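User: I've been trying to design a sequence by hand for this structure and keep getting stuck. Would you show me what you'd pick, starting by listing the structure so we're on the same page?

Assistant: Good idea, let's start from the same input. This is the structure you sent:
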């Protein structure tokens, strides 16, 4: 295994484990409610508890990554994720189920923040964009591979057995971090003891603040679409619930391929402009996806196009975020985690409100407006790659060249 692949594998496994821990509840929520004698909505609050815990934890984790490096956080996140999965699988009551999700939330904050920050810690500018594409794309594997396995385990054994999937993914991330990453993984501590770190540094930096807000708005819109996509297919086309996961997995493949190709595009086109256009493309596609329903394959094709834009936006915006505060990648990627997880919560709530007051068609226009707002915010974010090379500043300190 080459040096670059050895450094990249733990980061890829970390984001893969994160997504596996997040999405597992969707296909098993009915079975969980039946066994724990709780409503589907009550069981679903576990996802909200996980997200809220991740948001709060991310506020502190960013500073920790910038001071001690990504390796300890990846190890801690892997251990917490495995423990949370085991606790969830063995939960005897709804309360225990919810408490276990708080543990998983801590794992998500560690793995997601450190996984993305590791791109700055281990790769120089020439390879950072390429590495980021893989880190972002890895999240799709949970949908493409993980969910079918979850379905098989649930049908063959029980929903409790399905938690072996996130547990195994988290243990793999833990082992890879311990065995493959050097102990000194963090960027050098910023010079100047009075310099703010963590979320305070992000909030005080205008461009970084606008980037974090753009991520929050974009993830809110994307989550609102994904949360109710299953219901849309069932209500609009009468699709079997078992087939919904297959349809979403096809979109995940499109997302993954686009993420992997983002670095090549940003070498040919201005990165910030590409992110703006991808954000607008997502918004534009949301309107026909949720308003035009001739046949299911037509909607799926539009959804895949939208997923391509989403992959380009996510990979490009993550790389742009690292370049906002180059000496504090942990702070920036912890802000990304907080924005994404808070966006998951807000998107699900806002989408539900729109559907309660109107319909899927109206939701499409609302989400278009949200993505347009995200594009406007990104357009005002400073991009060092858009400046002359002499003005772009030095690369992130302590990156390890592959």
């Amino acid at each position: 295994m080459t040096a670059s692949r050895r450094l990249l594998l733990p980061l890829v496994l970390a984001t893969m484990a994160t997504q596996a821990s997040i999405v597992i509840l969707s296909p098993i929520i009915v079975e969980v409610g039946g066994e724990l004698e709780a409503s589907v909505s009550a069981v679903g609050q576990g996802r909200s508890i996980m997200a809220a815990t991740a948001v709060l934890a991310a506020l502190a984790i960013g500073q920790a990554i910038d001071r001690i490096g990504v390796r300890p956080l990846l190890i801690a996140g892997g251990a917490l994720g495995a423990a949370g999965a085991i606790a969830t699988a063995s939960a005897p009551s709804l309360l225990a189920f919810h408490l276990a999700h708080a543990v998983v939330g801590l794992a998500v904050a560690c793995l997601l923040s450190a996984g993305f920050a590791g791109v700055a810690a281990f790769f120089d500018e020439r390879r950072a964009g390429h590495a980021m594409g893989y880190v972002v794309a890895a999240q799709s594997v949970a949908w493409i591979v993980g969910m079918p396995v979850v379905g098989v385990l649930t049908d063959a054994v029980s929903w409790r057995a399905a938690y072996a999937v996130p547990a195994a993914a988290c243990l793999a991330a833990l082992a890879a971090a311990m065995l493959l990453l050097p102990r000194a993984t963090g960027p050098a501590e910023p010079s100047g003891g009075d310099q703010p770190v963590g979320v305070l540094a992000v909030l005080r930096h205008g461009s970084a603040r606008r980037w974090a807000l753009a991520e929050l708005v974009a993830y809110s819109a994307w989550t609102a679409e994904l949360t109710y996509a299953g219901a849309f297919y069932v209500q609009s086309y009468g699709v079997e619930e078992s087939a919904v996961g297959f349809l979403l997995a096809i979109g995940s493949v499109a997302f993954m391929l686009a993420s992997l190709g983002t670095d090549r595009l940003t070498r040919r086109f201005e990165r910030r402009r590409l992110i703006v256009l991808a954000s607008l493309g997502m918004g534009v596609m949301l309107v026909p996806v949720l308003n035009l329903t001739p046949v299911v394959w037509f909607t799926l094709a539009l959804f895949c196009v939208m997923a391509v834009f989403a992959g380009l936006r996510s990979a490009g915006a993550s790389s742009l975020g690292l370049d906002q505060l180059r000496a504090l990648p942990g702070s920036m990627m912890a802000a990304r985690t907080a924005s994404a997880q808070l966006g998951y919560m807000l998107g699900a709530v806002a989408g539900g409100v729109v559907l309660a007051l109107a319909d899927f068609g109206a939701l499409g226009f609302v989400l278009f407006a949200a993505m347009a707002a995200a594009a406007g915010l990104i357009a005002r974010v400073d991009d060092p790659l858009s400046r002359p090379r002499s003005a772009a500043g030095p690369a992130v300190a302590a990156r390890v060249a592959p």
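That's my pick for every position. To get oriented when you compare it with your attempt: The chain is about 80% helix and 0% strand. Residues 1-186 form a domain with the Growth Hormone; Chain: A; fold (CATH 1.20.1250.20).
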